[in-house]
């Protein structure tokens, strides 16, 4: 009997960790956002983290003293070592889920178009792309010299094959290919047709794609990474992508590097792809090596890695500057933190209350406490570097408790005998669902509790697992929570439209719905800018959620490597094949 | 004996069924699923439904349970949502890395704990015993990530005695002895920290076990016969003091394969611990359930082994 009991205990303990160990990590969320649902666009004014040392234009803090570079790094003349969180081994641009797997995909595969530093696109595998008058037909002309790393040419059939895998009924990657509206994709998915009539192979190098409905993001959606059919298609049958996924750890693509070895949890090895149409990479070998937040600075310091993503904080920047040989690229993160409110709850249904809660919260102090100078308070849900970003007619909601109190009075919330505001006999008491071990929550809650007490509002926090909070949010059983969203380069999103799948705040404004629909259908960039400026003005006024901050990311790079072209949109991976190594 | 083993093995079947039911129910009660955990801002409701259908998450829980059990009986633990490959493959990729450090550090802790425990029992309340007790409690009370980071800072970064993290040197394409040597070098630090952490409690077990034994009459008899103290302790007392430790030995089995979540993270060791933790956070049910069942089976086997060893070591409780 005793043994049974101990067995039960072990099992329960193993499972108890489910409930205990799930600190919902906001950093994990934006990482999973796929980058390919993105679109053409021009850059807005680039505004970077505001410190004096940071070069405002590009967010670069230069290396100061290269003589301090350790021998471990300087003696490694034929290899770049990049430190990062371990990828999961899904080295296939169709199936990856983490940003780290995507870093591998970006050097092994290439797509019809690739992103430029300003967030716009340029042709890559495609030599030219023709779009029909009605925006429904897209013709891709593939480069003549495009080859996969095994020497076989990239053809229109490879494109068709890749699309078939996307449209397959068992495709479980992060994209939503049926929403691309390619003619006949639905039938292929259901298995009622074995071909996709919307994709016509004209000749070896030309493919024509027809969609039944277009949007501003149709072109980037169709500009997929191409898989070689000869390699991935050997055992593929419609309705079963298992054989494609089985090759995840041994990818073959048309990118600048080819994967030569993968040791799970440790490292990924690459060699230059001499068949690469963009020119053989300058550095013959590339290694992605697993590091963690605990070891990444130490690895850079000892010269074991050349590049890593380091958390931006004053301490870290100072320490890396002290090393002398490290160059830092501080870039706005594509995402933002917000305090979600249930817009349908009687507490927050009045927009005056939501505005008051924004005025009454010292957001600058909160953001300063979490990120120091390396994050900015935001007032609209868009990245400062996006072309859609606007500050015109946007209320900055500077901290103003008096204004907040006035708005609350207007909304009918009056102070009761105990100093807590009341309306219709109901006290203004907010239940805040917080995650444990989150630095944002740790800084936010004390300031927020204090600020809101001054307004006559009581804030009660309960600590829950992140997934549990999200479950409550979906079930509309919540009042307030903190979370973060990732942003795609295109401003189209489902977060603030009434029927949107990601409408966490139960927000509904018919005008916003209408404009968002229009913006998605409009292909002219200037017109889109105007539409989204209107959307953001409305959102800024309605404050469906308290927009909190946009933080920054940092690539810390050993100064021996030169020629980087990095931005929020264009990750370091796109520069790896062209950077040069300083002669030592 | 073989009859006993067979009976125990048969008893494991209903126990396992019970465990699988409990584990599955708990997994169902946990809020969220893989699709909500991915937090994809572009996920539409239709795509979420499609994915749930592909993963079988749209079926009623009872049906899901039977599908899972049926697959398990054929040795198929399903496909991990996160890793997009069979769970068995994910486990076998990472579990051996965990096993290597867990095995070496267990071996070391048992040897060290046995000797230190015996000596501090023999010289109870001596200066040596007091020092050991102090050290043991110190080690037990320090959080593992703290010692880990401290060790990295001083031993790896400042003194450059050990590599900072990982299991091999980046870009090393060595095989054979060179590879083993490289791994051994990288193992030193994590194994040392793991051993320091686990040796404490074991030492206390051995000390207590030994203290009980040396107070017994037969030890007094042995001493009265004029035997050397050395012989009394190691030949007469030590073997009996080991008996209670056998239970612990059996329970050690699952921990050998379970991975050390925190230390693996600190030392960037590619073990199963962090993979398991990630599967919990991401609600990767096949991996999470599969690995939990794997640990449950190991626990049962560990129990069985300690029962058998008991019989071998102690004739008094040998089962008939």
Automatic annotation (TrEMBL), chain A:
Residues 29-52 have a biased composition (Low complexity). Keywords: Signal. InterPro entries: Peptide/Ni-bd (IPR030678), SBP_5 (IPR039424), SBP_5_dom (IPR000914). Residues 121-505 form the Solute-binding protein family domain. Residues 1-20 form the signal peptide. It comes from the Bacteria. PANTHER family: OLIGOPEPTIDE-BINDING PROTEIN OPPA, PERIPLASMIC BINDING COMPONENT OF ABC TRANSPORTER. This is ABC transporter substrate-binding protein. It comes from Saccharibacillus kuerlensis. The lineage of its organism: Bacteria, Bacillati, Bacillota, Bacilli, Bacillales. The gene is oppA.
UniProtKB/TrEMBL annotation, chain B:
It is found in: Cell membrane. Its main location: membrane. InterPro entries: BPD_transp_1_N, MetI-like, MetI-like_sf. Residues 95-306 form the ABC transmembrane type-1 domain. Keywords: Cell membrane, Membrane, Transmembrane, Transmembrane helix, Transport. PROSITE patterns: ABC_TM1 (PS50928). It holds the Pfam family BPD_transp_1. The chain crosses the membrane at residues 12-30, 94-119, 131-152, 187-206, 241-267, 287-310. It is a multi-pass membrane protein. Belongs to the binding-protein-dependent transport system permease family. This is Peptide ABC transporter permease. It comes from Saccharibacillus kuerlensis.
């Amino acid at each position: 009997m005793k043994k049974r009991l101990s067995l039960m205990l072990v099992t329960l303990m193993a499972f108890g960790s489910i409930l205990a160990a799930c600190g919902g990590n906001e950093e994990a969320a934006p990482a999973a956002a796929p980058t390919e649902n993105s679109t053409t666009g021009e850059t807005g004014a680039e505004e970077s983290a505001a410190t004096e040392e940071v070069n405002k234009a590009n967010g670069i803090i230069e290396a100061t003293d290269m003589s301090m570079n350790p021998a471990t790094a300087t003696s490694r003349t034929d290899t770049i070592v990049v430190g990062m969180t371990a990828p999961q081994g899904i080295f296939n641009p169709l199936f990856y889920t983490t940003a780290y797997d995507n870093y591998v995909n970006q050097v092994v595969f290439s797509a019809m178009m690739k992103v430029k530093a300003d967030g716009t696109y340029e042709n890559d595998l495609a030599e030219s792309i023709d779009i029909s008058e009605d925006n429904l037909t897209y013709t891709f002309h593939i480069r003549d010299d495009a080859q996969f790393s095994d020497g076989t040419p990239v053809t229109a059939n490879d494109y068709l094959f890749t699309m078939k895998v996307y449209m397959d009924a068992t495709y479980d990657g992060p994209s939503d290919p049926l929403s691309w509206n390619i003619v006949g994709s639905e039938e292929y998915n259901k298995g009622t047709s074995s071909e996709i009539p919307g994709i016509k192979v004209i000749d070896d190098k030309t493919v024509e794609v027809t969609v039944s409905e277009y949007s501003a993001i149709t072109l980037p959606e169709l500009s997929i990474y191409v898989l070689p059919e000869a390699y991935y298609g050997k055992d593929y049958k419609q309705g079963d992508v298992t054989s494609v996924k089985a090759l995840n750890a041994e990818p073959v693509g048309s990118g600048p590097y080819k994967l030569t070895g993968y040791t799970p949890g440790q490292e990924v090895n690459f060699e230059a792809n001499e068949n690469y149409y963009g020119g053989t990479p300058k550095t013959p070998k590339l290694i992605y090596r697993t590091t963690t937040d605990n070891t990444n600075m130490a690895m850079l310091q000892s010269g074991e890695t050349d590049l890593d993503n380091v958390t931006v904080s004053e301490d870290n920047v100072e320490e890396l500057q002290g090393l002398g040989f490290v160059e830092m690229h501080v870039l706005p993160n594509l995402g933002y933190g917000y305090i979600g409110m249930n817009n349908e709850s009687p507490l927050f249904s009045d927009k005056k209350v939501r505005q008051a809660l924004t005025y009454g919260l010292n957001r600058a102090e909160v953001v300063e406490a979490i990120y120091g100078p390396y994050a900015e308070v935001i007032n609209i849900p868009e990245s400062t570097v996006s072309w859609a970003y606007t500050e015109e007619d946007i209320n900055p909601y500077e901290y103003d408790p008096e204004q907040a109190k006035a708005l609350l009075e207007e909304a009918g919330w009056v102070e009761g005998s105990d100093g807590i505001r009341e309306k219709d006999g109901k006290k203004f008491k907010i239940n805040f669902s917080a995650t444990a071990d989150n630095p944002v929550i740790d800084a936010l809650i004390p300031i927020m509790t204090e600020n809101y007490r001054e307004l006559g509002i009581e804030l009660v926090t309960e600590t829950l697992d992140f997934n549990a909070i999200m479950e409550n949010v979906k079930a509309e059983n919540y009042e307030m929570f903190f979370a973060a969203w990732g942003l795609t380069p295109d401003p189209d999103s489902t977060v603030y439209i009434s029927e949107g799948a990601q409408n966490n705040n139960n927000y509904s404004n018919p005008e916003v719905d209408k404009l968002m629909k229009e913006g998605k259908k409009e292909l002219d960039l200037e017109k889109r800018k105007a539409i989204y400026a209107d959307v953001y003005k409305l959102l800024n006024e309605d404050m469906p959620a308290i927009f909190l901050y946009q933080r920054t990311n940092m690539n810390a790079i050993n100064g021996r490597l030169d020629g980087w072209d990095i931005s929020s949109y264009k990750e370091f991976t796109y520069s790896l094949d062209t950077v040069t190594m300083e002669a030592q | 004996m073989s009859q006993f083993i067979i009976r125990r093995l048969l008893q494991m079947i209903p126990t396992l069924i019970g465990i699988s039911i409990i584990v599955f129910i708990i997994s169902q009660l946990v809020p969220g699923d893989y699709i909500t955990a991915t937090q994809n801002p572009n996920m539409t409701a239709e795509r979420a439904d499609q994915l749930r259908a592909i993963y079988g998450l749209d079926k009623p829980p009872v049906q899901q349970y039977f599908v899972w059990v049926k697959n398990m009986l054929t040795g198929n633990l399903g496909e991990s949502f996160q890793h997009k490959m069979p769970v068995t493959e994910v486990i076998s990729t990472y579990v051996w890395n965990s096993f290597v450090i867990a095995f070496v550090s267990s071996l070391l802790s048992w040897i060290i704990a046995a000797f230190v425990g015996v000596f501090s029992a023999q010289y109870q309340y001596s200066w040596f015993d007091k020092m050991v007790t102090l050290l043991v409690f110190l080690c037990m009370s320090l959080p593992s990530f703290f010692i880990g980071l401290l060790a990295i800072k001083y031993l790896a970064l400042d003194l450059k005695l050990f590599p900072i993290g990982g299991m091999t040197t980046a870009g090393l394409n060595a095989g054979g002895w060179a590879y083993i040597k490289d791994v051994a070098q990288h193992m030193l630090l994590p194994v040392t920290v793991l051993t320091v952490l686990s040796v404490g409690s074991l030492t206390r077990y051995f000390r207590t076990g030994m203290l009980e034994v040396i107070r017994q009459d037969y030890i007094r008899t042995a001493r009265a016969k004029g035997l050397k103290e050395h012989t009394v302790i190691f030949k007469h007392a030590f073997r009996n003091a080991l008996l209670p430790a056998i239970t612990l030995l059996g329970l050690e089995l699952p921990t050998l394969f379970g991975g050390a979540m925190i230390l693996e993270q600190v030392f960037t060791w590619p073990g199963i611990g962090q993979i398991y933790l990630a599967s919990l956070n991401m609600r990767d049910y096949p991996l999470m359930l599969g690995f939990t069942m794997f640990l449950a089976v190991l626990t049962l086997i560990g129990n069985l082994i300690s029962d058998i060893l008991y019989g071998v070591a102690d004739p008094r409780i040998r089962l008939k």
